Amino acid sequence: MRRTICGLSAALSLQGAELKISEPGDYQIFQRSDRAHGTIHIDATCRDATGTEFAYRVIDTQGKGDWSKPVTATESIRSSILAPAGGWYRVEARLTKGDQTVAEKSVEHVGVGEIFLVAGQSNSANYGEEKQSVKSGKVASFDGATWRLAHDPQRGAGGNGGSFMPPLGDTLAAKFGVPIGFIPIGIGATSVREWLPAGVPFPQPPTIIGRVTKRPDGTWESKGAAYATLLAREKQFGPHGFRAVLWHQGESDANQKDPTRTLPGNLYQEYLTKIIHDSNQTAGWPIPWFVAQVSYHVPGDEASADIRDAQATLWKNGLALPGPDSDALKSEWRQNGGKGVHFSGPGLREHAARWAERITPWLEQQLSQK
Questions:
Q1: Do residues 27 and 50 touch, judged by C-beta distance below 8 A?
Q2: Contact 19, 103 (CB under 8 A)
Q3: Does domain 113-368 have CATH number 3.40.462.20?
Q4: Going by DSSP bridges, is the β-strand pair 139-142/147-149 parallel, antiparallel, or unpaired?
Q5: Taking CA 358 as the corner, what is the angle to CA 356 and CA 362, rounded to the nearest 5 degrees?
Q6: 247-288, pLDDT tens digit by residue?
Q7: Sign of the torsion formed by the C-alpha atoms of 117, 207, 131 and 330
Q8: Whole-model pTM?
Q9: CATH superfamily of domain region 18-111
């Protein structure tokens, strides 16, 4: 089970024994398996602990929690406990010898809730005009190594500005009563071609070619770095370790200044189909993907019917779920007084609201089936 997620440890040494907790980390969220429950994983390391016993407990929001049955302390201990959906919980662990505690460790904020992987280009990342912050205190993000409260900018994604994730997380946390987690991996200005697995050919390069390479036959291929990051995060969380992918991308394929760099809609559909299919095959489970309608650039270049039709066809084919129509967000919802491609502060919050409108009824349906 996901042994690389936290990277956060500390120790208290008494009488020579040392206890470290690498999982859970502070603000770590575990994906719930049904409406009421999820599994919290414990990964501990004990040193100089001969003759001691290890136990742990999860303290709920009412301050209650029972110690697990003690086990003989070994250098590496892995365990898990079924816990109610919610949080934040406090996880405590200890080493005892007889009736004496010789080492102890606690993690203050652990949740069981909903987790979403967020991928695509700049409007899935940190390029908004106004940094957003978590208001509820119940939204966290994971950057590949550590968890933290999801204040912008989101580590793990490109850019240094604002994102839609804090307000979306606050809305979902209020609606469902559980902590919300995000796994941000969006990269600014990326074409869908740059998210393909390495070695997949395509006829023309995107406008920015740093993440692609030309083949000897004159065609092009992705270097595969973005796809590798996608697979790495999916592997870290394991089967059913998060709820869904939120995909927001298309601007860098639509209506490029050099028309040879514009991607035809049929190829957009083909390439995103391959990304979804191949990554799900590698992950080993049918990850739901929400795909937004995205092709807006600036006033006067506000939509590509070809790219929008390709995104909608993925919904119609049952390969993806409908995300929001973010092309509809114009004027005051865009940066620089409505002149830019990225969202203003109000635009980020409206973008979040429209994602919530798509996610909420679907998630309610998923929870009612378990």
A1: no
A2: yes
A3: no
A4: antiparallel
A5: 105
A6: 999 999 999 999 999 999 999 999 999 999 999 999 999 999
A7: negative
A8: 0.95
A9: Macroglobulin (MG2) domain (2.60.40.1930)
